[in-house]
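Board notes (copied after class):
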Amino acid sequence: MAGVVHVNWYATLFRGDSFAAALEEITAVSLRYGASEYAVYRSRDDAYKVLQMTTWESHDDFDRYWYGEDFALWRADHQSWYQVPVLYVWHDLLVRGGLDPALTVGGPANGSR
């Protein structure tokens, strides 16, 4: 079953813009490790709060990304740009929909309910 990993980041003071840009770059790298899609959201109410989301078929692929060299180097370069601890949460994808039928997973749109 596909999973979506959420990582809630909180940038340090005066680093909101630069941290969000850096996170956009490393999140795109997830595709090289097997992610099928990614997104980065920034709160409008709190410009230092950023949510990273990646979708995976395999938890092992996510682990290769999260603990791999690319992300390790990124964390080393940006360690003062965000607050710790940083914890990820794996969510099972149950349903996803939208106006584009290709986006629909599970639920009534494909007859699974």
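Comment from the instructor: DSSP finds three helices and four strands in the chain. Helices lie at 16-28, 59-66, 69-78.
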